[in-house]
Amino acid sequence: MTKKYLKVDVVSPLGSVFKGEADMVSLRGSAGEMGIVYGHTELLSTLPAGVVNVRKGQHTDVLYVSGGIVEVTPTRVTIMVDDMERAENLNQAEAEKARARAKEVLKNPDASKLDIEAANKRLKEADARLKALNSSNGLYYSKDD
């Protein structure tokens, strides 16, 4: 029997940013962690900023996504995002600086509600970048200090 793979497509406003096949796609959706394999039931979910793992055999592509929507059919996973980066292209120092800057805004008692919302978003994105970077290196990253 021939092995059946999921078709995986990550698209941004710029077009397709990742195409591949997978034994399994793992990600965090609105209802929590999901592992998606060939034959999965159809679903549509929102995604927070986070990590998407696309595994085929012994190889795993680790992707940072800025958040978006995932559509699953029995044979395909389509992820629509504003931004996506492969973990190996992420810069740890930049992500740590972004995290520190966001935390500084959150500590400021004079920060506006708009500044606080933007800082919370940037903090979640920086945490997701660090998690993607560290998980691609076989490390565990916790956003808690």
Fold and architecture overview:
The chain contains 2 helices and 10 strands. It has 145 residues and is an alpha+beta fold. The chain has 2 domains: 6-87, F0F1 ATP synthase delta/epsilon subunit, N-terminal (ATP Synthase, domain 1, Sandwich), CATH 2.60.15.10; 90-136. Strands 2-1-9-8-5 form a 5-stranded mixed sheet, with no helix packed on it. A hairpin with a 3-residue loop joins strand 8 (68-72) and strand 9 (76-81). Helix 1 runs antiparallel to helix 2. The chain starts with 5 loop residues before the first strand and ends in a 9-residue tail after the last helix. Its main location: membrane. Pfam families: ATP-synt_DE_N. Belongs to the ATPase epsilon chain family.
List keywords for this structure.
disordered C terminus, alpha+beta, 10 strands, 145 residues, ATP Synthase, domain 1, elongated
